[in-house]
Write a structure and sequence with these properties.
With 434 residues, the chain is of the alpha+beta class. The chain contains 15 helices and 18 strands. The strands form 5 sheets. Strands 4-5-9-7-8 form a 5-stranded antiparallel beta sheet, sandwiched between helices.
């Protein structure tokens, strides 16, 4: 199929494009940079609405902790700008481009919000939805509208900005967003516990999260995954590694780390650079990426300046078996995480690791026809599973997002119809017919 790309450079042009598609009865593949195009069901359409031309920061009010930018603004522009003012998007937006074989740093603000994804700090700071204050966009009726604002306040009616987070462009073509930013931590340290099996590791993570020490990251890397880290202190353990992150002002971090180290029986403490590096690996699912990770960390070098040498496999050798694996994101009750992980390993050839204190499992699974049923069968009613990376033919025939109960699916259809009655915006991206 020949695909024609329509690239507006203003919100008004985006509205014109939607109205044209509506008049022609033709669906649109709504995309930013396309860094997450591999996530979701494939869209069969002859027209792509490319929002990368809607780029640029509209307003950055650092004192008010608010940023407004056009939807196509690259995160590679936004994140350094925030860092200069020692601020951040606290939900730790993921860069999943490399997971799909694309260069890093190509995601956009609109894509971050539309996908609704968040990194390890979700357990303490919430998701993208919790930090989205306002939006401007075009619905499927061709109406250019605004929702929300620049402050957090009680309002009546629907909270439209939060509804857009995680909608994957099926409800509105986002043209501009306002997000909350927060101060970046002055210091960060990570406690390392070596050699814990899954159940013991999740128990330690639970204890850390329930402690009064304000933990902002809690993850567990089984031995095979930990060995792929480019942080020497992690890979050199030679076994499973359990990680607990503490952030904040320097003296506070020092005191909390000392207390946690004694309570958890930690084996080591990673410094700031090592902590930044390993949590970026965890956040971006770097252990399952086909592109190389950064080389081993060198003390004193800035994380984002580390080169990625061509031809260096992230697994230290032939990584073709990992490139071909399907990647699943599995949300589960933390107490059920070890059981679910063991069930998946028993049923499938799978490697996995835990984030969110055991409540999130990232799994790289060898392709088999029954993988989806095996994973969702292992879950039962304990959570849900999303197929994040797989070839297009697999994503066409597999429920990419977890099947919804009939009442929830009926509600989703009604919401879709209210914003996009003719079904022209990313039709079927999440569920068939929605």
């Amino acid at each position: 199929m020949t695909v024609t790309t329509v690239k507006p450079d203003s919100a008004a042009q985006a509205a014109d494009a939607v109205r044209w598609a509506l008049s022609e009865g033709t669906p649109l593949d709504v995309a930013g940079s396309g860094s997450k195009r591999g996530l979701g069901r494939p869209i069969q359409t002859a027209y792509t609405l490319d929002l990368s031309g809607l780029s640029g920061v509209v307003a950055y009010e650092a004192e008010e902790l608010v940023l407004t930018a056009r939807a196509g603004t690259p995160m590679a522009e936004i994140l350094p700008m925030l860092a200069e003012r020692r601020q951040q998007l606290a939900f730790e937006p993921q860069d999943l481009g490399p997971l799909f074989g694309r260069p890093e740093g190509q995601g956009t603000l609109g894509g971050v919000v539309a996908s609704g994804l968040a990194g390890p700090r979700r357990i303490s700071a919430g998701s993208a939805r919790d930090h989205t204050l306002g939006i401007e966009g075009v619905n499927g009726r061709g109406d250019l509208y605004k929702g929300g604002g620049k402050v957090v306040k009680n309002v009546t009616g629907y909270d439209v900005p939060k509804l857009m987070a995680g909608s994957f462009g099926t409800l509105t073509v986002l043209t501009e967003l306002t997000v909350k930013v927060l101060p970046a931590p002055e210091d960060v340290r990570t406690l390392l516990l070596a050699g814990r099996e899954d159940a013991g590791a999740v128990a330690a993570l639970t204890a850390a999260l329930q402690s009064p020490y304000d933990v902002s990251g809690a993850a567990h890397l089984p031995a095979a995954v930990a060995a792929r880290s480019h942080v020497r202190a992690v890979a050199a353990v030679g076994g499973a590694v359990t990680l607990v992150r503490v952030e904040g002002f320097g003296p506070s971090v020092t005191a909390r780390v000392a207390a946690l180290k004694e309570e958890l029986g930690a084996d080591a403490v990673l410094d700031r650079d090592e902590s930044l590096a390993v949590w970026r690996e965890i956040k971006d699912v770097a252990f399952f990426c086909p592109l190389p990770n950064p080389p081993p960390l060198t003390q004193g070098r800035e994380l984002d300046s580390l080169p990625r040498p061509a031809g260096e496999g992230w697994g230290g050798g032939d990584d073709s078996r990992h490139i071909s694996r399907h990647v699943w994101k599995i949300s589960v009750q933390p107490s059920e995480g070890p059981r679910v992980a063991e069930s998946i390993r028993w049923a499938l050839d799978a490697e996995l690791y835990f984030d969110w204190g055991g409540g999130l499992i990232w799994a790289a699974v060898a392709p088999t026809p029954d993988a989806a049923s095996a994973i969702r069968g292992a879950l039962g009613t304990a959570g849900h599973a999303t197929l994040v990376r797989a070839p297009e033919d697999v994503r066409t025939t597999t429920e990419v997002f977890h099947p919804l109960p009939d009442p929830v699916m009926a509600l989703s259809r009604r919401v879709k119809e209210s914003f996009d009655p003719c079904g022209i915006l990313n039709p079927g991206r999440m569920y068939a017919g929605v």
